[in-house]
Each structure stands twice: as C-alpha cells, then as structure tokens.
Amino acid sequence: MSLVTKIMIGLILGVIVGLLFVSNPKIANTYIKPFGTLFLNLIKMTIVPLVFASLVVGAASIGDIKKLGRIGGKTMLYFFVTTAFAIVIGLVAANIFKPGVNVSLAAAAAQEVTEAPSIIQTFLDIIPTNPIDAMAKGNMLQIIFFALFTGVGATYIGEKGQPYLKFCDSLAEIMYKITEIIMDLAPYGVFALIVPVIASNGPKVLLPLIKVILVCYVAFFLHALLTYSVSVKIWSKISPMKFFKGASPASAIAFSTSSSSGTLPVSMRIVQQVFGVSESIASFVLPLGTTINMDGTAIYQGVCAVFIAQAYGIPLSIGQQVTILLTATLASVGTAGVPGAGFMMLMMVLSSVGLPLEGAALIAGIDRILDMGRTTVNVTGNIAASIVVAATEGEINYENASIMGSGKDKSLKA
Ligand code: ASP
Asked: N or C: which end of the chain has fewer CB within 10 A?
C-alpha cells in the first residue's frame, strides 16, 4: 500500500473515531492528541535547519544575484496574482450563496483588533540583526535573507566557500532523510491529530453555520482547480490529476495539522522527489510562500467578511469589497503559518470596512474546521508556485519526478 493511501485511511479513520468521541472529547484530547503532537513536533524539529541549509545550497547553485532577482520577481508575481484570484473567488461565492442571510446573531464577545505592522517596518524586519536569534525564534523571512546572503557570499569567495557549502549540503540531506523517516509515521500522526479536532468540533458546533463552511470549501476547491491545476498544466507537463495526487501527502498533513509551516519539510521533499523541481527553486519558493503566500486564508477572510456583513444586514458596496480585497491580501501576507493565525487577521479585514468585530465571534466556534481547509489550500498553492516558477526557469527534471513514472528515489511516491 502506498504512503498516500495509508495517510488517507488514517484521515478517514480519524474522522470516524472523532465522531465516536463527540460526547466525550476529553478522552480524545488526553489520550490521542499527544501522539499527534509528537508527530508534529518531529516534523517541526527539521524546519529551521532544513530551510537554512537547503537555501544556502540553492542560492549558491543559482550563483548570480541577477538570476536570483528574476526568480524572486516571478515568485512574487505568481503569489500576488493567485492571491488576488483567491479573494475574488471567495467574494463572488459569498455574494452568490449568501451564507449570512437569516443567521441569528450569537452573543457578542469582545475581540481585539490586530494592527497591521507598517510596510516600512515589515521590510526592515526582514534583515536579522542577529541571525542566531532569527534561527532560535524561527523567523522565516530573516532566515531566508541570511541564508541567501551567505549562499551567494560563499560562491563569491570560491574555493574557501566550498567547505561551508558542503556542510550545508550534507545538513540539508540529513534533514530530508529525517523527514522521510518521520513520514512513515504520518498515517498514525494524521489520525491522532484529527480525532481530537473532530471530537471537539462535532455536529453541534458545525450545523448552525454549515452554510458558511460549505461556501468556504466550495471556494477552496474552485481556487485549487481553476488557479493551481490550470497554471501548473499551462507551464509544466504535469496534469491536474497528477498534480493533486502528487501533492496529496502534504495536503493531508496540512489538513490535519492546520499549520503550513509545520507542513513545510514535507512539501520541500515532495516538490523535489515527486515533481522533479530543482532544490534551488524548492528551497527558495516554498519557505517564502509559507510565510507570505496564503490563498486559502485570503479566501476565508473574503467569505467571512461578506458573511458577517450579511448576518448584520449591512450592505457592502463594490468599493468596500475592493477594500476587503486589498486588506485581505495584506492580511494573508502577514498571517503566520500556524493554526488560527488567519482568524486574528480577520479582525483587521473587518475593521478596514467598519464591520462589527463581534461578528468574528460567530466564526470563532467553527474556525478550526475552516482552518483545515484554508491551510490545505495554502500548502497546495505553494507547491503549485514552485512547480510553475521551476517550469519557467527550465528547472524541472521530469526524469527525476516519480509522478511522471520515473525517478530513482520513490520513498514519497504518490
Ligand atoms: N493555519 C493557516 C496556515 O498555517 C493560517 C491561517 O490561520 O489562516 O496556513
């Protein structure tokens, strides 16, 4: 049985067992959840060394700053365009299906607004004044910046830079191997992660707001189908079926953990091994995307804003919806790849168009269920981005891609 099949079985069994524990979620939380946390912590352990080491090697193999700049430009363009598409799909879906009409309002709860940091500060924060501190705190943008710089620096000094690059290469390989070993536990990990979520978010929580959940998931599917699989098909030789199948181990981990940064090591392995993307592109696009490219979160913010407006009977003008588009784009950039981060940013979107923040209280109860879907979209979107950018740079080696029926190393084969 392939790993993907096993993970899917773990996921489905987890949902079933979770439903059995709905009346007593405490048991699931006490006895099953720790195994999920164990699995997630194992993956997280590899993130910082993996991102750092593979990006140093990647930057060194790209070599010149001009090419690095070009790849960076393409990546940002893809991120920006797909995020705009995502919000438009979310807004259109919410306007058509009107999930908030006839919703009885829940009791208001006080919520705090997260202030968006200023653009200048955001740019300044990318430069780590102390790289070790950046690594200790897992600050992804700062790690990316430092890794790129040392990688380029090492190529410039030639011979003397070689030991450093060799060390980083070896470290990255070790982390990849560890990720693979941990992935053998994925079916159990996914099971243990999903049981407590379903047990504590049973039908009682879901049913009253089933419409908004459905609208979000419809928009998630449409975006994945229309934007990701189509763009992958246009630029690479990978068909939509192969794309979704190949990405599925990462999608399943994203769905069960609600953390795109926790899924990062798995995505890094998959794009190289399953889709044949070069290490230099994978190590650049994926960590960056995990930090700033969150289409699922953007869709969710668009749908929820319209939903809350409808629930309160506040009409939203086209101008206000454009404001939502802009703030949700910024909000999704600022969202961290951890569970529930998008919910905090939702407050910012709501306040940008003067919607009542208490409206978020309606969403709070179902947020985890929405988080699972949006994280899956976030992760899938970054996999698509790395394939598209690699394809335009001629950096996909189809011979090495297990999804194309070739490739030597098949441990993560779909
Ligand atoms: N949990 C999401 C992620 O990790 C972020 C969010 O809450 O929207 O991608």
From this structure: N
List the end-to-end C-alpha distance of the chain, in Å, as a whole number: 11
The predicted pLDDT at position 406 comes to 62
Distance CA 265, CA 52 (A): 12
Rounded to 5°, the CA angle 60-286-124 comes to 75
Confidence of residue 227 (pLDDT cuts 50, 70, 90): very high
Distance CA 411, CA 414 (A): 9
Assess whether the C-beta atom of 257 lies below 6 angstroms from ligand 1.
no
Asked if residue 261 lies in contact with residue 110, where contact means CB atoms within 8 angstroms, the answer is no
Q: What is the largest CA-CA distance in the chain?
A: 70
In the CATH scheme, what architecture does the domain 3-404 have? Orthogonal Bundle (1.10)
Cα gap 305→315, rounded to integer Å: 11
Instruction: Decide: helix, strand or coil at residue 277.
Output: strand
Q: Which of 378, 379, 380, 382 to mutate to test the pocket of ligand 1 (most atoms within 8 A of CB)?
A: 378
183, 68 contact by CB (below 8 A): no
- pTM, 2 dp: 0.89
The Cα 394–Cα 388 span in angstroms is 10
Whether 340 is in the pocket of ligand 1, judged by its Cβ within 6 Å, is yes
Domain boundaries along the sequence of the chain: 3-404
Q: For residue 87, which of 367, 285, 343, 293 has the smallest C-alpha distance?
A: 293
Question: Whose C-alpha lies nearest to ligand 1, atom 3?
Answer: 337
* pLDDT score, position 115: 63
238 in Cβ contact with 209 (< 8 Å) = no
122: Cβ–Cβ under 8 A, 6 or more apart, which residues? 334
Beta carbon of 335 within 6 Å of any ligand 1 atom: yes
Residue 277 forms beta bridges with which residues?
396
Query: Is the Cβ atom of 259 under 6 angstroms away from ligand 1?
Result: yes
